[in-house]
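Handout, section B. The chain below has 138 residues.
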Amino acid sequence: MSDFASFVKPQPSEETEAELIRAASDCLDRFTSCFNACDADGMDRELHFPHLMLSGAQRLDWPAPGQHPGDFFEILRASGWLDTRYEAKQAVLVSRDKVHFVVTYSRRNKNGDLLSLHKNLWIVTRVAGKWGVALRSY
């Protein structure tokens, strides 16, 4: 039982909550910058693997980098997409090595018109000193 108790009790941090949020948020910004550059390898560098995505009750596990479909950005561009922007990133749970964000982002066309608006839960974790997105729930 003591292993479980230490698992569910976050360890104290020498960093402030604001510093932890900023570091984890920077990871999200790098991911989206790579997304907008159509750089799947760069996006993978901002993920932790295995990587988990939830959509409704469906679960998608990516065991390793290189899982984005080859035509992902083609399909997105065909919809009129030019870029993705964060409208809001709200940290809702913060600990030494994990930050849960409710992210609201938009996809927009070349005129800046809104194509779609999404609100998701993303969990960013620090593993071996590196912040990366561990889970995305759509």
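Note. The mean pLDDT is 95. Compare this with the example in section A.
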